[in-house]
Write a structure and sequence with these properties.
The chain is mainly alpha-helical. It has helices spanning 11-20, 22-28, 31-35, 37-52, 62-71, 80-93. Helix 5 runs antiparallel to helix 6 (80-93).
Length: 106
């Protein structure tokens, strides 16, 4: 893996960091995760958002980016994973925001 967190990570490197992150360990080791299918579905959506950060053409709503930062465990902001997530969130906050589909126009 890249020693310098300022460098871009490959998809595989980022996925490996995610799998070893304190954030992921916290959520998947919880009783809620083990006993509640709905909780696992919500976690899967969160995981999808995290992994989307690696994409260069990904789009996010502002609240999705805020949620990502809020749900990352503090311990991860002291390592390569958390630093990379923070940089990617900052990158996407500077991009145009994904707009919700306005189905009222139908």
């Amino acid at each position: 893996m890249n020693a310098n967190s300022q460098q871009n990570l490959t998809k595989e490197e980022f996925e490996d960091l995610w799998k070893e992150s304190e954030t992921r360990k916290f959520y998947i080791s919880s009783d809620k995760y083990k006993n509640n299918g709905n909780y696992r579905k919500v976690f899967a959506k969160f995981e999808e958002l995290i992994l989307k950060l690696q994409g260069t053409k990904s789009q996010f709503q502002e609240n999705e980016l805020d949620t990502i930062l809020a749900k990352i465990k503090d311990e991860d902001f002291n390592n390569e994973f958390g630093n990379y997530v923070a940089r990617r969130v900052d990158f996407f906050k500077k991009k145009p925001v994904k707009q919700s589909d306005d189905l009222d126009l139908l």
